[in-house]
Amino acid sequence: MYSSIDLDKININAAPPAEEPARQYYFMAKCRQHVREESARLGRPLGAAVVNFGCQMNARDAEKLQGILEAIGYETANEDEADFVIYNTCTVRENANLRVYGRLGQLGKRKRKNPDMIIGLCGCMMQEPEVIDKIRKSFRFVDLVFGTHNIYKFAELMASRIESGDMVIDIWKDTDAIVEDLPSKRKYPFKSGVNIMFGCNNFCSYCIVPYVRGRERSRSPEDIIREIEALTADGVAEVMLLGQNVNSYGKTLKEPVTFAQLLGKIEKIEGLKRIRFMTSHPKDLSDELIEVMAGSKKICRHLHLPVQSGSSRILQKMNRRYTKEQYLALVGRLRDKMPDISLTTDIIVGFPGETEEDFQETMDLVRKVRYDSAFTFLYSRRTGTPAAAMEDQVPENVMKERFDRLLSEVQAIAAEVCSIHEGHIAEVLVENVNEQDAGLVTGRMSNNILVHFPGDAGLIGKLIMVRLTEAKGFYYMGEAV
Ligand code: 5AD
Ligand code: SF4
């Protein structure tokens, strides 16, 4: 594992090793030499900032970038003071891209005053060829650009930028490689994301993810278990298993393993208290998984189950491969075995061809399922996806009006659903001291709902039994019992 590697013992004057991860440790040692020299020249430590956009998968990637930067010798800094700034980008909706361009413009102004600054860009947005064209043309001051497949090569690319002084761009279309045992720096000491698979093979017709994250590939169960054991030994109580579609985990392994079987193995890890996972695709959610969840003491009573639309006609155009009825039947099976399970979802409003009747089907589904919360999105047209080429795109004003109606329905239901636990006693994993009131701590129940209760920093990372004294809509006030 990384913790046993001493970068100072690596001979950086020899040729770089060919195999991974040794090759990356060699380049980390090289970059570290440079950071030490720069730091001595300036008479202060160098600072780095990783700015993350997007999903949990990106948040985990950001921790990997942070781990490598720390190994290289950078201290963590704010974006406006950092000598090295890297944006880990998202491209799932167009807004995400626009935000990155806006912030990049600001960063360019700073770099004009501090020419030694290094600016990096990585993540999903970089996998789009038109983005790379735009960076080459309009953002010449960027130093380092890489994509989702070669993030493990961060140190090597950085070394190449330091040596050449030129803009380094390295984007791969796809990869089979999964490089294990690189450093990472967790944001929270007591919980961590754990990638179990990468990529997506589903090609939902609106979604750009399969094009920017490549084909589905799973990590071996042994590597996953080893990582979680090491995390647990380091104080982690809760893991979030990450994949675009965790329910199809293991299908591409030499010796196939189901997601339910993987969960069974993880459950046995001593010291681990809670297991979460996301995202589940309804079409692949097996009865075997429902059984394992229902029988588990560690798997949280929460399932994020994106429905996207309540209209079977639209679901078919979305290539989701289930109908409204099948989704509702699945929810029925889940609630049958786990009456207390909390369900959350993603819904897209305004997919091409969506009529008022289709939208009413979505409203009906929301009323039937009664989600604990739902992320609602305006459909965003992503170049290169089948839906972008579909006729009858829904006008923006119609889309927005439907969005508002859906949001108020979702919120009204969520407030009702969330308040049913008032008066109960629940186990809460404490996450932090409350930002508004230092006399309170904030934690999460198994069903993912937040609870604030009197306590101090000493409780962070601990599981505490709390009486839920007052429901406040989407969170609770409580007191330790
Ligand atoms: N437009 C709007 N929302 C989208 N999502 C994915 N692609 C798009 C798009 N083109 C949403 C889906 C997915 C979530 C992560 O983002 O609801 O579940
Ligand atoms: Fe996108 Fe569908 Fe894959 Fe999710 S399952 S990442 S929505 S293509």
Tell me what the structure shows.
With 481 residues, the protein is an alpha/beta fold. The chain is 36% helix and 20% strand. It has helices at residues 22-42, 56-72, 94-113, 129-138, 154-164, 209-213, 221-233, 259-267, 287-295, 312-317, 324-337, 356-369, 396-418; strands spanning 47-52, 75-76, 84-89, 118-123, 144-146, 168-170, 191-195, 197-198, 217-218, 238-242, 274-278, 302-304, 342-349, 373-378, 425-433, 440-445, 450-454, 463-471, 475-480. The strands form five sheets. Strands 2-1-3-4-5-6 form a six-stranded parallel beta sheet, sandwiched between helices. A five-stranded mixed beta barrel has the order 15-16-17-19-18. Helix 1 crosses helix 5 (154-164) and helix 8 (259-267) runs parallel beside helix 9 (287-295). It is globular and about 65 Å long. Bound molecules: 5'-deoxyadenosine and iron/sulfur cluster. Residues 92-93, 206-207, 306, 308, 346, 348, 377, 379-380, 382 line the site of 5'-deoxyadenosine. 5'-deoxyadenosine binds at residues 92-93, 206-207, 306, 308, 346, 348, 377, 379-380, 382.
